[in-house]
Amino acid sequence: MTLFGYTIDGQQLFGVLSLVSVLALWLVVLRRERGYARWFRQWEADRKARRDAETAHHGPKRGPWG
User: Fold this and answer.
1) CA–CA distance, 13 with 19 (Å, rounded to integer)
2) Which UniProt keywords apply (predicted)?
3) Do 13 and 2 contact (CB within 8 A), yes or no?
4) Whole-number Å distance between alpha carbons of 31 and 40
5) What are the phi and psi torsion angles at 5 (to 5°)?
6) Strand-pair partners of 2
7) From the CB of residue 49, how many other CB atoms can be counted at a distance below 10 Å?
8) Which pLDDT tens digit goes with each residue over 4-63?
């Protein structure tokens, strides 16, 4: 098989396919990691909003024991 004028044997083809598959794997992992980070930020914001609403409902706490 020739590619851009170079003869590629089976071992080189396997190496290229391995590199492409590892790149695809890293792209999938990166996308999932970014999705998880986005979900976690939203979860934290929702939790803080619930906590703030709860403390606003009960009024300000006074003293060290509330």
Assistant:
1) 10
2) Membrane, Transmembrane, Transmembrane helix
3) no
4) 14
5) 85, 0
6) 7
7) 10
8) 888 889 899 999 999 999 999 999 999 999 999 999 999 999 999 999 988 887 766 676
Alpha-helical runs (H) found in 1-66? 10-58
- One-letter amino acid of 62: R
Residues 8, 2: contact at Cβ < 8 Å? yes
Q: Are 35 and 47 in contact (CB under 8 A)?
A: no
What pTM does this model have? Answer: 0.62
Q: Which tokens is 12 given? A: 């080189």
Cβ partners under 8 Å of residue 55, min gap 6: 61
Q: Which two tokens stand for residue 4?
A: 């851009």
Give the residue carrying structure tokens 């619930």: 50
